[in-house]
Amino acid sequence: MPAGSGEAVAVTVPEQERRRECELATSAVRRAADVCRRAQSELSAADSRSKADRSPVTIADFASQALICAWLEEAYPADPVVGEESATALREDADLRGRVVALVAGALAEPVAEERVLAWIDRGTAERPTRGRFWTVDPIDGTKGFLRGQQYAVALARLEDDRVEVGVLGCPRLERDGTAGVIVRAVRGEGTEWLPLDGDGASRPTSTRRVENLDELRLVESVEPSHSSHRATRRIAERLGVRSPSLRLDSQAKYAAVALGLADVFLRLPGRSSWREWIWDHAAGALVVEEAGGAVSDARGRPLDFGRGRWLTDCRGVVAAPRDLHRTVVAAAADEVARRLR
Ligand code: AMP
Ligand code: MG
Prior knowledge:
Elements: H1 14-42, E1 48-50, E2 56-58, H2 59-75, E3 81-83, H3 88-91, H4 94-108, H5 114-123, E4 133-141, H6 143-147, E5 153-160, E6 163-176, E7 179-187, E8 192-196, E9 204-206, E10 219-221, H7 230-240, E11 247-248, H8 253-259, E12 265-268, H9 283-291, E13 294-297, E14 318-322, H10 326-340
Helix pairs in contact: 1-2, 2-4, 2-5, 7-10, 8-9
The site of adenosine monophosphate (AMP) has 14 residues, from loops.
């Protein structure tokens, strides 16, 4: 504040502010991931439902979105949040609603009114703003993996116009250096780091793996063949001369694996050319790979466009790879793209 001015002058320090956002987002993701972990170990058939698009949703998806939105409401009350879930189904389903509220109350360690929980969840149903800042959240990315007892991620990102500025992925079942459960996070322009999900272990920088020969590449793809064609990945791997079989992980844990050097190339080749990619399925993941030294594009090599809707604009599949190899991988994918994604 200038001396003697008598009034506060707002000084915005973008880097510092983004670092603060990243810390806050990390706390929110931690709290949500904790609830997901507890719920995953105790899940019964009564805890999940099928959505209109036939994709599954569980009490943990709702509780995770409620907790993250509550956190954002306190820290950034003016920021819109574009999330995957809404409370509509819970308003009509008292049994499920009760389970979600109990889960949230358990996480907060205090009673909480039903309406409050529903309002938090619905904070995540904001219109996607055409300009300016907003957050996007996938409270459980990879719900199918979550239900199988396998990988999933809690994904939170802060965007400005079409740029992802901060991205945080909580991956409770991903392991790095003997640490089970990691957070992988990035602030634009500042690199990617990882830290244990539990405890107060220090964060460490991470980067994509250096690969000298294409045959050493390790690919990673979806577990669900309906989300990404395993056959297409196999053909691309053959074209590149890759020797080892592809790793299969649900969720944005695939982006995290590339940023951590556990895999080198993430390929997503949806079987349905009409499939549109949601922004919350890619925002945090794309930033952590880019800031770790990778490049991310759609399968045709075009940049991911976060600039318009709740979907990535005109996006067909995804290729994430170390920057120096990205072009080579896109070229190797061209035939498969021509066959199924144009
Ligand atoms: P993954 O963990 O790679 O299987 O991706 C999970 C994401 O796949 C979910 O968040 C969905 O948004 C998305 N998804 C659902 N159905 C499809 C589909 N038919 N094709 C491609 N992606 C899909
Ligand atoms: Mg998702």
